Amino acid sequence: MDIVLPVAVRDPACALPILWLIFTNARFLAYVSKQKVLDEMVNIFAFGGKKYKEHDVLIPLVMMGSGVFGFTLKGKKTRMSIMPKLKQAELEGRLLVCVVNESFTSQVCCACHTQSLSLARVLDPLTDSAVSLWSVKTCYICQRHWNRDKSAAKNILHLGYLEQEKQPRPEVFTKSMSH
User: Fold this and answer.
1) pTM listed for this prediction
2) DSSP 3-state assignment of 6?
3) Mean pLDDT for each 10-residue chunk of the chain (179 residues)?
4) What is the model's pLDDT at position 155?
5) Nearest 10 degrees: Cα torsion 77, 79, 85, 86
6) In terms of Cα–Cα distance, which of 165, 151, 162, 171 is closest to 105?
7) How many CB atoms lie within 10 A of CB 22?
8) What is the enclosing helix (H) or strand (E) of 133?
9) 136 has which bridge partners?
């Protein structure tokens, strides 16, 4: 973005405060946009994205894994996290948030609830060797193929329901069962 300064402020000493003002204004507008996105995401969770229609009497239950929210892959804190907005909506009575410990949810089959998932392997036609697919898991008990993330999401939902009913966490989702 090229910034053209008026003739009166072509002096570098005068230009610096104006550039700082432009930069600060751009940062503020970016912050406001992110907040609007987060508010709209919470609105979608709470009301199904209905803006001006009548809202249902039922309060939605949002179940999320307890992964570290608000951090980038490099471990730096990000400014855009939905958790504070969800907690605020929960305090306002618009929805309920259940944060579930997601340990072993991608390692347990969501159909037979055994820790029997392994990476699916397919034959690579170019090299005639077996290649593992990271996103696809196969249960060697019930012989089903699962998308890793969908299976974990179903397990988080299952654990969330158990937590809401004050039931103990199944042993298959604990460290004592892992090999």
Assistant:
1) 0.65
2) coil
3) 55 64 75 77 74 65 72 63 83 86 88 89 85 88 90 91 90 70
4) 93
5) -30
6) 151
7) 13
8) strand 129-139
9) 147
